[in-house]
Design a protein that fits this description.
Immunoglobulin-like; 5-stranded mixed beta sheet; 4 domains; alpha+beta; rod-shaped; 7 helices; 4-stranded antiparallel beta sheet
Length: 481
């Protein structure tokens, strides 16, 4: 199991399999030894400690042996815990800080080293100094799998804090981020160090630690917002744990693209991955296998998937072209558009197109009659009227649908306009040229182009001095207006 983010209760791990009960290293219980060790043994242990206290201190490794609670000091209570571990009365996980050589045993030399620190103070994990320009205190717990579940990272494990310069690549690419601070973990995996708050304001941050060999655990959080307070040890604080679930969350975010998530979305995915792994058993796993297990568990969790979906930013849609084609015949469209067989069908076409309010100069069009293409995909200028005609004899009697499809070059965005019409040889359409389109004459009650162009004398489209026909049938010349 993994404690909640920001928790300082590494020791709150149940050792029910060992029959020992719960040990809280984060808040040391001075009576925990009394509940485990008989009085005669306690007396012997105390005597042993007093005897060893008379020894001359000797040089030891630069880690604070025996500092069970990570407060950079070794107390008599902690020395008694070490002696009891050495005697095999309580497990090494009660205070891994005594196991200097990581062999899961506590030796006399390690007890002597702890006594030296009890007498002379701990050299490891010096008090952090604040960074000028407004300090950000970065603190948390580095956790890894152990023989009894999740335990603190080894004393001295380096924890680094980075500012993400490229949100998309920060998790996987060192050149995409800037190191802003680092520090070593103390007993129990606790770490504290400072960074310049002004360097990371309003920025995504990545924390990482080399927990075991080449295995790195990561977490993400955010620097203080603009306007936050700073200064010294009482400045701003960032709490972030590094453990298998935080590594799983970073992997999930990286796979989905961190740049696609809001700040709250990132936090919610990290929290959902933590909750999903609360019951996950990591005992005796390697750090790499624990991270893989946490990832698989989180990825299969419905709440994590919901957080991934909900946390994604809604992208601002790119402006799409607006294409508005129109097509009609000289007699309109629909029931009024009736033409005789062997009659030309005059067409009028116009396409307007814009992108983000800006007029586009050209579009590509296809004109079809029913499903037959009569005008292949060709470019035409927008915003202008184009005239054409369907030649006579191309359409047998029947109902037809004229369709123009227009789209923007290089895009599939477009629109379609339609115009129904009918070809009906049985319906007389004209008596004179005034019933026909300009230039046509009425022959056998059908409008046709035949011989010289003929116009209606009373029409506004009658060209000056051109031959024309009166509505009553007589012929004349268009007036010179």
């Amino acid at each position: 199991m993994i404690p909640s983010s920001g928790a300082r209760t590494l020791g709150m791990v149940r050792y029910s399999a060992l029959g020992v009960g719960t040990v809280d290293i984060g808040r040391r219980r001075r009576t925990s030894i009394r509940s485990i060790v008989p009085k005669t043994v306690r007396v012997a242990c105390a005597a042993a400690v007093l005897v060893v206290l008379s020894y001359t201190p000797r040089a030891v490794a630069q880690t604070c042996l025996g500092d069970c609670d990570g407060d950079n000091a070794v107390t008599v209570d902690e020395l008694l815990i070490g002696v009891n571990i050495a005697l095999g009365l309580i497990p090494i996980d009660d205070c891994p800080a005594f196991d200097d050589d990581s062999n899961l045993e506590v030796t006399v030399d390690e007890i002597i080293g702890a006594i030296d620190y009890a007498l002379n103070g701990c050299p490891g994990a010096p008090t952090p100094t604040a960074t000028p320009g407004g300090s950000l205190r970065i603190q948390g717990v580095c956790l890894r799998p152990g023989t009894t579940g999740i335990v603190g990272c080894s004393v001295g494990t380096q924890v680094r804090a980075w500012r993400c310069n490229d949100r998309a690549a920060c998790a996987s690419s060192i050149p995409s981020r800037t190191l802003v601070g680092s520090g070593g973990s103390a007993a129990g995996g606790n770490f504290t160090f400072f960074a310049d708050a002004n360097q990371v304001r309003n920025s995504l941050m990545l924390l990482d630690a080399d927990v075991e060999g080449a295995t790195v655990y990561r977490n993400m959080d955010f620097g203080p917002s603009t306007g936050g307070s700073g200064g010294g040890a009482g400045g701003e604080v960032l709490d972030a744990n590094l453990d298998p679930s935080s590594e799983a969350a970073v992997r999930l975010l990286d796979d989905a693209g961190v740049q696609n998530f809001s700040d709250d979305g990132v936090r919610n995915v990290i929290e959902a991955a933590r909750v999903a792994n609360q019951a996950t058993i990591f005992t005796d796993l390697s750090a790499a296998d624990a991270a893989d297990l946490a990832f698989d568990t989180a990825a299969a969790d419905a709440n994590v998937q919901a957080a991934l979906q909900a946390g994604m930013l809604t992208p601002t849609p790119a402006p799409q072209p607006v294409v508005v084609p129109t097509i009609t015949t000289s007699r309109g469209c629909g029931a009024a558009a009736v033409f005789a067989m062997n009659e030309q069908v005059p067409l009028r076409l116009r396409v307007d197109a814009s992108l983000g309010g800006t007029t586009l100069p050209t579009v590509l069009i296809i004109i079809r009659i029913n499903n037959n293409t009569i005008f292949g995909e060709e470019p035409i200028a927008t915003g202008e009227d184009f005239f054409g005609s369907i030649p006579p004899s191309i359409l047998p009697p029947g109902d037809y649908l004229l369709r123009v499809q227009a789209r923007v070059p290089g895009s599939q965005n477009g629109a379609t306009a339609t115009c129904p019409l009918r070809i009906d040889p049985a319906v007389p359409h004209c008596n004179t040229a005034c019933d026909c389109d300009p230039g046509q004459r009425c022959v056998g009650n059908q409008c046709v182009f035949q011989g010289n162009l003929l116009y209606c004398c009373t029409s506004a489209t009658c060209p000056a001095m051109a031959t024309c026909q009166e509505p009553g049938g007589g012929f004349g010349v268009c007036p010179n207006v």
